Amino acid sequence: xxFLAAPDPATTVGEVRGALDKLDPTFQAVHDDxxxxxxxxxxxxxxxxxxxxxxxxxxxxxxxxxxLAATSSIGQAMLHDYEVVRQRLACPSNLEPG
Length: 98
Prior knowledge:
mainly alpha
């Protein structure tokens, strides 16, 4: 999650897209978990969708640096939303999604 909140400028769009894809099973499990209120899991999924929308038309080999300004707030929101859900489910802070 930290990677998506603040990707290294040398990162490619493909690396970011791959990291987002890796989160799909975790985010789906959160969505399906009755212990997580809909507004919390919806915020997490919406942030992931917004992030994907920003890079949808870019090739995997495209440098991510020019996209940082457009995705920074989205990545920070996604990290925040993930932390809210992680705390609700009482997951350890060192637990990484995936």
